[in-house]
Design brief:
alpha+beta; Butyryl-CoA Dehydrogenase, subunit A, domain 2; four-stranded mixed beta sheet; four-stranded antiparallel beta sheet; 49% helix; globular; binds flavin-adenine dinucleotide
């Protein structure tokens, strides 16, 4: 294995950095907006439109869909730079990471023609309707129903914690068409369909991020079904495997750690305890980076991603937590308003171990699938 970036990869990173320098507003870092806020959602369309024109929105996609078949390293370098810059793509990171690729794999030609080009042009926002009040970690117990009717389905039920729902054009919805895991199906639902109500949930992560979404007798035509009836478990697993290592949180965590350390040094407050704790946090960021790179390398070689993805995700959560603890302990003034960037990072880091699935579930997967530990007899 070669541990160096090659010249092409370094040049690509430089291109992305130059693009960011030219396209982010001068006061970008001091804007304390949530990723799903009104202003961020509007800005994401301008920004992603410009990324698309520069060939930097979906370089890893096939040429047919506006990409250039770039490898998994290219998309990860892009993701690292975007996340380090505060993710100016807003909710559209999901589109390019997993919604587009999932549509390419499971969609009909008509669904692909309808939904993929707007994603590749950076002009649409999606939301992910998986979690419900009684179905988060245990997704298989979801209760939102999709019942067949003349010409399509009627949807009834409730989703919760749905990011970006207030501005989304389309929902990637999981609903029940039968019993058990094989009784779940995916529907592509335009958010302006009659019977959908969206309520924002106030949260520390920022305005407009999470919502409740209610479906009251919502009609969708039969061609809103993605894949076959009952195929949702396979589709969702595939999507989540792309999402799990799609957000390089460790990169921003390491940047924020360096920022906090620099502030402490400047104030002559970087003492022995802080050095030790920051070293531990930095080591965790590096561990997360290397675990994630292992998955990217697997993707690059077309090897199916195994339970190592859970280790990468858990290492990333730990990196965020250790950096968070360091900042709380040594830079409380920054969190009290002294540094909007550190504060915004801290607020987003709090949810790292729950958004995209609880970290403890990853520990279960590491125990059973990676370490092959025996299950405790019931
Ligand atoms: C900021 C944010 C954004 C989100 N965005 C979306 C979104 O866009 N779309 C969407 O569908 N969902 C979204 N979610 C929901 C998220 O996926 C769920 O919160 C997550 O899957 C956990 O489910 P839950 O909240 O029901 O908690 P629960 O499943 O009730 O878990 C609560 C805690 O119980 C423990 N626990 C539960 N089960 C086990 C187990 N088997 N073994 C060990 N410990 C366990 C864990 O400690 C866990 O943290 C978002 C959540 C957040 C915080």
């Amino acid at each position: 294995m070669d541990f160096q970036w090659d010249a092409e990869q370094r040049a690509f990173r430089d291109t992305v950095r130059s693009f960011l320098a030219e396209n982010l507003p001068a006061d970008w870092e001091s804007l304390a907006h949530g990723p799903g806020s009104e202003s961020q959602s509007a800005f994401s369309k301008t920004f992603c439109g410009a990324l698309a024109k520069a060939g930097l929105l979906v370089p890893h996609w096939p040429k047919r869909w506006g990409g250039r078949d770039a490898d998994a390293w290219t998309s990860f370098i892009l993701a690292e730079e975007m996340w380090m810059a505060g993710e100016p793509r807003g909710g559209q990171y999901m589109n390019v990471n997993w919604i587009g690729p999932t549509l390419m794999r499971f969609g009909t030609e008509a669904q692909q023609d309808r939904y993929i080009p707007p994603i590749a042009r950076g002009e649409t926002i999606w939301c992910q309707g998986f979690s419900e009040p009684e179905a988060g970690s245990d997704l298989a117990s979801l209760r939102t129903r999709a019942e067949r009717c003349d010409g399509g389905y009627r949807l009834n039920g409730q989703k919760i914690w749905t990011s970006y729902a207030g501005h989304a054009d389309t929902c990637f919805l999981l609903a029940r068409t039968g019993i058990g895991k094989t009784g779940m199906s995916v529907f592509l639902v335009p958010m302006d369909t009659a019977g959908i109500t969206v309520r924002q949930i106030p949260s520390v992560i920022g305005e407009g991020d999470i919502h409740e979404v209610f479906f009251d007798d919502v009609f969708v035509p039969a061609d809103a079904l993605l894949g076959a009836e009952g195929q949702a478990w396979e589709i969702a697993r595939n999507a989540l495997s792309l999402e799990r290592v799609g957000i390089p949180r460790f990169a921003l965590a390491a940047r924020m750690l360096r920022r906090a350390v620099a502030a402490l040094k400047k104030a002559d407050r970087y003492g022995h305890g802080a050095v030790e704790q920051s070293a531990r946090a930095l080591a965790a960021c590096e561990a997360a980076r290397l675990y994630s790179y292992q998955i990217v390398d697997q993707r690059r070689h077309g090897t199916p991603t195994g339970p190592e993805a859970s280790a990468a995700r858990y290492a990333t959560v730990m990196a965020e937590r250790l950096v968070g603890e360091f900042v709380v302990e040594h830079c409380p003034d920054a969190l009290a308003g002294g540094d909007p960037l550190l504060l915004a990072h801290h607020q987003r880091a709090i949810v790292a171990g729950i958004a995209s699935g609880a970290a403890e579930i990853q520990l279960n997967l590491i125990a059973t699938e990676l370490l092959q530990l025996p299950r405790e007899p019931r």
